[in-house]
Please model this.
Amino acid sequence: MTDSSSKPDFIVEEKKGAPVFLIFITVILALALAFLVYSYFGQKDKMQEMESVLTQEKDSLAHELLLMVHGYDTLRSNNDTLNAHLEKEKSRIKQLLSINASSVQLIKKYKSEITTMRDIMKSYIVQIDSLNTRNKILVAENQDIKQQITKVQKSNVELSKVRQELSSKVEIASVIQAKDVTTTTLNKNSKETSRLDRINKIKVCFTLRENPIASAGKKTVYLRIIRPDSLVIASSSDNLFEFDGKKAIFTASREVDYINQDVDMCIFVDKNPDFILGNYKAELYLDGNLIGGSPFILTKR
Model:
């Protein structure tokens, strides 16, 4: 009886212990599930917070890149090579803007690239400032040089005018003038007469003035006898000389050896059928210049 009564007690105790174990397991699983849920939502919050930080960081870097693009747009220089480098750097920035930096590693690379680009941009700013400063100096120097050139040109113009005036004065001063010009009409006996029917020769006498600045040497004096009707009396149509850039006809000529001193001389013209009554002019030319003259009259009685 003793054996039969003890067996049911064991069975009863075993049945009582089973629910406790199940409850323990359930509690453990519930706690584990709660921990996993808590960890999941905690991790999710951290991920959302990190994603928010990454987004803000990306937006901040993108804003800085846009500012750099705008900065490159304002940078200008007169150096074609430098301008090409500026455009290349601006293209790099635009390319970097197109990258979707969605991880910490890409953000770090993003930052590294921007730091490098920022340093490059600063170096370009320094170069352009230096070039602009140099250009301002060169512009100022060019303006100064232009002003000096203008002054020199004005001075040259003035000197040219003075030179021309002096040259004209020297040219005028170097002209050998004739003084004491007299024209005498002579008969066959070399006596003076104004009667047309009695004249035999016309004598024109004068003195070539002393002129120390005139060129010395052999010179030819040309005489023109001009009738009342402005016709020049000439023995030949070949009697031509240079005057005022043109060929002019002359009546007679005489050569003289001029030594920059007064020279007394006369030129004779024989009567010919071309002489008529009226008022005449005798003109003297030397070296293409009119150097003197005198009037005379041929009358009927």
